[in-house]
Design brief:
Layout lengths: L7 H24 L4 H23 L15 H31 L2 H38 L4 H24 L1 H9 L6 H18 L3
């Protein structure tokens, strides 16, 4: 509901809370070698925390009763169903490359690829958080025909320039980044990171779509 009201500070805080809580719980589970199941529980706990946070903020805009009478809005359910399916497919697609590599190659190759991919993943997460704040009002204005293309042209260009600058930094300092994050053991990840900088730039371009 607060996404509809476009109160963007809560949207960003919700996304950050989800990512940060999972990161902390996952790191703790790895530090104390709890096991792979702990990662699953970490993901579930972080989702519950994000849900409670969203529920608390949503109640600031409307009166909500979780156990009240349910009224189904078919139009709303249809639209959210499409977004839900898209999100599920995106999660599968984002992991399918690692799965394929694990089948046709060795564990070492999977590790080398995943280190480079995770660096780009955090950059993409940053773009996603920004886009969830910037693009909804632009789409609303576009649907009403009130958007000023000339006035927003500079903003789009600025976004592309910033994205290109980040790509240049990642490409130029890829060796240092991999060394700081993973050490010399995954030095081969440098070439993966350089290749995926192109993916990051393309992701920035298609995000408004």
């Amino acid at each position: 509901v607060f996404r509809v009201h476009e109160d963007f500070k809560w949207i960003s805080a919700s996304d950050v809370l989800l990512s940060f809580s999972y990161m902390v719980l996952a790191m703790l589970s790895l530090k104390y070698t709890i096991g792979i199941n702990a990662l699953i529980y970490s993901s579930l706990i972080s989702m519950v925390l994000a849900f409670l946070y969203d529920y608390y903020n949503t109640r600031r805009f409307v009166i909500i009763s979780l156990l009240g009478k349910l009224v189904f809005d078919k139009t709303f359910i249809k639209s959210t169903f499409i977004f839900s399916v898209t999100n599920i497919l995106w999660q599968i697609i984002s992991k399918i490359d690692v799965l394929m590599l694990s089948v046709i190659s060795s564990n070492t190759d999977v590790g080398v690829f995943n280190v480079g991919k995770q660096v780009i993943f955090f950059a993409v997460i940053g773009i996603s958080i920004i886009s969830s704040v910037i693009y909804p009002p632009l789409v609303r204005k576009l649907s009403k025909g009130t958007i000023d293309f000339q006035g927003n042209k500079k903003k789009f260009i600025a976004g592309l320039v910033i994205s290109l600058f980040i790509c240049i930094l990642l490409f130029s300092f890829s060796e240092m980044i991999i060394h700081i994050i993973a050490g010399n053991k995954y030095a081969e990840s440098v070439i993966i990171l350089k290749i995926l900088t192109l993916f990051f730039f393309l992701q920035t371009i298609i995000t408004p779509i």
